[in-house]
Give the backbone structure.
Amino acid sequence: MKHLDTCKRAVQLALQKGASDAACTISTDEKTTISVNKGQSEGLSASTGVSMGIKVFLGQKVASFAVNDLSDESVTESVETALMLAKGSPENKFEGLADKSLVGKVSEQEVALIDAVDKTAPFTPEQMLQMAIDMEDAAYAVPSVAAVCSSDVKQGRDTSYTYLSNGFEGVEEDTWYQLVIDPVAGTGDKKVTSYDYSVAFHQADLDSVQTVGKTAGEKAAAMLNQVQLPSSGKMPVVFSPEISSSLMKGCLKACLNGAAIYAEKSLLDKSSIGKKLFGSNVTLLDDRLKPRGLSSSAFSVSGIIGPQSVKFVEDGVVQNFTMGVITARKLGMSPDLGREGMHNAYFKPSDISVKDMLSDIKLGLYVTGTMGRGFTAENGNISYTVEGYLIRDGFLTGEFVLEATIAGNLVEMLNSATFANDLTDRNGLNASTTRVDSLTVS
Amino acid sequence: MSSVILNALGHSADELSKMVQTSLQGGNGGELFMTGTRHFSQTLSNGILQQPSVALIKGGSVRRINGQETPFVVFDGFAAHDLNNALNLISKVPQGKAPTVNLTASGIAPKTSYYTQNDAFEGVELDVLQAYVVDLLREIDSYARQQDTRVANVDVQVAIAGQDKLIVRADGRVLSEYRPKCQFVVNVVLIEGDKKESSSENFGLPFTYTELLNARDDLRAMVDRCIEKASNNLTAIPAKGGDDFEVVFGPGFSGGVVLHEAVGHGFEGDFHSKDIASFQGKIGERVAAKGVTVYEDGTVANARGSYNFDDEGNAPEKTLLIDDGIMVGLINDELSAAALNMPLTGNGRRESYKHKPMPRMSNTYMEAGNATLDELIGSVKKGYYVMELNGGQVDIVSSKFVQNGTVVREINNGQLGAYVKGVSVAGKGNESYKHIIGVANDFEISKNGMCGKEGQSVPVTTGQGSMLFAKGALKVGGSA
Ligand SMILES: [Zn+2]
């Protein structure tokens, strides 16, 4: 725990030199990556990194300093410079560490439950190379796959150490493994590309490289059967779990974010809490202790542990925002949830199967990709360029639409949204196959 | 040679050059790349000054080129032990099976820098600098609130940074430079009744801090533009979509972003060497209308995308990409130039020492045309005038691109009409540019721009005059 000791030393030094409070975090990371192209290694990349952030308080005056040199001289200089800047800073009435009464102690049981560290030996460079080659081969084995942009195998270990002068200390560590491949199908001006991936904290939870390569290749190949959208207008739109997860994540992170709400940059405001703004099918909750969950966490950086699960939206009623200590003070709310962000959030699935969800759709679009930055958090307007497959007479077809536009509004969308029963946990925020009937497709 | 980094390492240029050559011998090339960056920023948000942030980040990486195989080791800090360790690790990487490549080096850095080499902080203490910045932030905030009673929030940020860079190449050349950077970002939110709109302006230029402070009139003008744009958008009506609109893009960033996304990325050599580029095999072919001439140019004085040498240590160039509509060149780094047997263009760039270089744009622009913006708008029967975009996305394989408009007006029978919202513009880069009807003489080069590729961001600019796309060239997505 050399780094935790450095954090403590930095905080104590700041206090000795006159700070009323101080906070220090040190993060380290190790990462190795291997990419192959046409069966040929592009070389192993290896990196190790360390960085320290120190924040000092002189009452309500604050400054922070980030540095990646942890020598004694550097730590001392960082603390002194931060104090000098804090002296010149105006008072900010919202600043300050979390109240001592809210600060908790990291539970060993919870850390064990999250299980973010794989005890298995990491992959050797030779194993990683073979995996990347096998994944690429699996993609090339799919007919009509003509090239692969890159086939990457990555692994790493991240650790963070936090010490606050309100008495909190916490260490968080994880190992991670990642496979990513993006094959190209077709040639000339008809080329298309898709991708697949697998991410996990444990080697055992990774999908096989053969599955990832094959899935990505098949996704790309299927896109070659292109049709034009037969007609424009309001029609049912069904988002694949992947797209629903990323779309909802982007939209809701912006809207339910307390800092954005305070800055008038969300369509929600403080009075939204307790209001039924969305359809009764919409329940969004998280779970910070999900075993091996991609965004599990034993504590928040403010030192507040927080409940295991927070409901952000329940049956369409807005219940909570994400906010740190400072944002909570600005909004006049309690920071006791300890949610700077969502942890393994998911939309509660219904018991409707995807098959039943599609069954009454005469013509609709099953969206497998989005492009552009088509969401405005201030008003919820949505306008994305999308790609996907036609749904005809209750069934998903193989007819691929390379370019269509969906337009509408997040609030309307979440008033008509239904979440199917196929929830998985591939991402940090997850949604099942999602049907929305309020969007205009053109 | 004097260099902050050499001093910190305690080596002369010659010593370090020998160490790197020893470590990288037997390969085809590679380099030691090191930077030290000092950064100060402060934000005023909703009337409240946020904490000042300072960062001092230093480190380096060693890359060895063995054919297409490029082992790479990254280390944080300037400690001799970590540098030696990285050089040692790289020297032990076995020679790969990859065939060797013939790398070319494109000469030495310019005698005169493309931007000031003066210290961004001009030697002042941080607390002195902070006092100036706080004054500026407060002044901008109150200026914005005085202009319009509907202003509900102002976010304004100033960031000042300076970076020392050192490259030691496998061929023994040692290059060093300093790069100052000032960034100013302002966002204004207007509320009227139950309507809320916000608008942003920003610039990031190789300035020192006094140059930024002295540009107060320009900064106020940026606030004025934010208010004007947000105010116009409060009246905006939902846009109709369709594929029968003519589209005029405004000068500078508006049309330039489309050029960068839809065309520029398709000219990057690494995609061509992997056979995945949308402009694959089109050199010598018509890819744009007659009259469209496009350059990639890292040598524009005081531009945000310029550099004195790229991140492999090669000089930037002015590279002709499209000559009167015909594709003639590519954007290359050492590896892609070697793989394609094409000229090296000095475009090997990386986000930081933690990343490998790859072919990237710097300043990408289309030559000015002869028309005027009024003529272009006047010639449109049914279309849109896109004045601002919020950046976009391109699929480099299919050439499909999308841009979301943030300030857009209707054009009906040659007349500008209502402001509209929810416009997205989509097309295919290797097709749409064949249908440009006119380019105007109002050439501008942007003062902002970040380009993302494979997870790495680098500063870029784009430039051009206003331009008009024919009906059918682009698809407009609406929100009506
Ligand atoms: Zn770009």
Notes: Chain B has eleven helices and 26 strands.
